Amino acid sequence: MAKSKKSSDKNPANLAPSGLTWKRDAFCREYLKDRNATQAAIRAGYAEKAAKEQGYRLLTNAHIKAQINKLARERARQLEIEANDVLLRLWEKATADVNELVRVERRCCRYCHGVDHEYQWKTAREFREHYDKEIRRQFGTDDPDKFVELGVKFDAGERIPGIPTDAGGYGFDPTADPNPDCPECAGEGIVHVVVADTREALSHPLYEGVKQTKDGIEIKIADRAKALEQVARHLQMFKDDVKLNASEDLIAAARAISAASPPITPQYARENEHRLDELDEGERAAADSRSGSHG
Question: Which of 31, 120, 234, 252 stands the most exposed, by the fewest C-beta atoms within 10 Å?
Fold first, then answer.
């Protein structure tokens, strides 16, 4: 007599060391990869068409839940991870300062700290490079008479349009604060986006990588709100399941009333203000009547 499929599944030869069938055991291991029951069921060999329902059903099985928890504990031991370590890491992520990775700063302009608020150069070399470049652009290098004429004007203290001078001095510090008395930027300075050196940011709880885009460098930052939510769930601060001790008839009636009720909009409130006043007066009268009867 042929054995039924149910009895053949209980044959030790058809069971994994966990005591589950091989397919169910595979589901447990696949589920731990991404905590996605549907995808875990598909990878374990269940039909894709019914994978969603199958995954949910498997997760409600007490033996499967026990095996998943066992595998999770084993993985944590192998990685030498404790629950408190994970919680601490999540808390660090939730409370980390994003300004340590990327921030916007207002820094001084070139005129903020120059002598008499003239343009300030970093070094004499920087000034000379710009000076020579502008001389060649305006006068070229073929006519020595032009250079003689130019020298005479400089000796006379004349300013030639477009030719830079070092009247503002040297020592420009691009990281200095704006000068509130600067007439050029009105003390506002210049906006700079500062990005941390990623070699130092690797251990930062919010740092998740960097990529080059057409608009520049993009720093990937972890979701602090999500991390905080995970901490709260770990500490059981949220109650996802709210159980109401009410009959089905009562719930159905409440839903019907809610569906039939008009939305409370500002216009609705204005149009029905007299009804609200009448309700208030009725409540006050009832309260007075109750207090009188007790007197």
Answer: 252
**Of 167, 170, 148, nearest to 159 (Cα)?**
167
Tokens 């343009």 map to which residue?
119
What pLDDT sits at residue 75? 81
Cα dihedral 29/33/34/38 (nearest 10): -30
Sequence-separated (6 or more) residues with CB below 8 Å from residue 22: 14, 15, 16
Domains detected in the chain: 13-81 (1.10.10.1400), 108-195 (no CATH)
Kindly list the averaged pLDDT for each block of 10 residues, start to end, along the chain of length 295: 49 79 92 88 91 90 91 78 75 86 92 95 94 80 67 71 88 94 94 81 77 84 84 68 52 54 50 54 57 54
Interior CA angle at 251 toward 250 and 254, to 5°? 85
Task: Give me the DSSP letters along 168-203.
Answer: T-B---TTSPPPTT-TTTTT--EEEEEE--HHHHTT
DSSP state of 60: T
Q: Contacts from 66-71 at CB under 8 Å and sequence distance 24+?
A: 67/18, 67/20, 67/24, 67/25, 67/28, 68/28, 68/31, 68/32, 70/18, 71/28, 71/29, 71/32
